[in-house]
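Need a sequence for this fold. Nothing fancy.
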């Protein structure tokens, strides 16, 4: 299976700030890749570099076998992009927007696919785009993106601002798009339930660095939260392989561990806790725990004051899986 997106040490600085740092990414043809990260992690900057809208400080990127610095017009025509907020010309009617976009894609225009989307969502051709609901604008944007029958669809937070019903309808449409043979989707989203439902593989950016690159199910299955209770203040937890984060609140210690196993169990038991439990996490909880860092709880008790010697290292919890 070929790679539709390939980056090598892709890096972007804005002044002295490194927004994307040494990104090595591969997205295979026909896959759905969810690019995750907290605000400011570098997701949108990465997408803009892949589209040639921002130039890397160094490193390189290829899309559909071509360097993004010199994408031929014919290759650009095989890429569709949905920006956050679905920006469209509000003064146009839906019909005018369709004719405008079709003029740029006459050789690849799939009118039948467009008609299916328009009919399914009952989108009024004569209505001004500025008078559409958020959900209707999202569906118009999706219809315009997929009508040229792109090989690669890139979406930047496509369901942001949509209500629950509109989001579900949008995702159903995306599933239909995915089922068309050979299409590849890269999308970022803050709504982890969307990613969990759609993506077969995820990447997680933390401060511009790709810390996770693995199948979605693998991430959910390997990240575990371990909760320990002690009679007094918890001891210092020793570093170990797979340890992502340690948080202490009073007599309670929480660990985030990748690939929890007998070695971790032995270390935990050596600390003589009163009790300890291993918790399964869904994608949203695993993502939150993985990216929150070693920040203590907002309403921590007196026993969890700074200086207890607990440290955290996301680097130890970094992994890439094929």
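Here you go.
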């Amino acid at each position: 299976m070929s790679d539709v997106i390939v980056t090598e040490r892709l890096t972007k600085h804005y002044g002295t700030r490194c927004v994307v740092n040494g990104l090595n990414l591969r997205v295979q043809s026909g896959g759905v890749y969810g690019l995750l990260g907290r605000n400011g992690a570098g997701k949108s900057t990465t997408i803009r570099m892949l589209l040639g809208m921002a130039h890397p400080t160094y490193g390189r990127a290829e899309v559909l076998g071509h360097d993004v610095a010199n994408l031929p017009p014919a290759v650009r025509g095989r890429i569709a992009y949905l920006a956050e907020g679905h920006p469209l010309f509000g003064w146009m009617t839906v019909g005018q927007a369709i004719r405008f976009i079709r003029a740029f894609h006459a050789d690849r225009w799939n009118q039948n696919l467009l008609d299916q989307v328009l009919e399914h969502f009952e989108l009024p051709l004569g209505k001004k785009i500025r008078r559409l609901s958020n959900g209707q604008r999202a569906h118009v944007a999706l219809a315009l993106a997929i009508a040229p029958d792109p090989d690669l669809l890139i979406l930047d937070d496509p369901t942001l601002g949509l209500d629950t019903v509109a989001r579900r309808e949008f995702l159903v449409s995306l599933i239909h798009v995915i089922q068309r043979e050979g299409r590849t989707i890269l999308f970022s989203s803050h709504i982890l339930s969307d990613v969990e439902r759609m993506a077969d593989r995820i990447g997680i950016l933390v401060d511009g660095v790709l810390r996770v690159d693995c199948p979605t199910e693998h991430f959910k299955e390997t990240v575990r939260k371990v909760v320990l209770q002690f009679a007094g203040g918890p001891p210092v937890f020793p570093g170990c392989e797979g340890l992502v984060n340690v948080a202490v609140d009073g007599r309670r210690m929480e660990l985030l561990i990748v690939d929890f196993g007998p070695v971790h169990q032995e270390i935990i038991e050596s600390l003589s806790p009163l009790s300890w439990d291993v918790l399964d996490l869904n994608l949203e909880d695993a993502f939150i725990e993985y990216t929150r860092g070693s920040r203590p709880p907002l309403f921590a008790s007196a026993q969890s004051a700074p200086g207890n010697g607990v440290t955290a290292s996301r680097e130890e919890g970094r992994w890439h899986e094929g």
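For context: Residues 80 and 153 are 5 Å apart (CA to CA).
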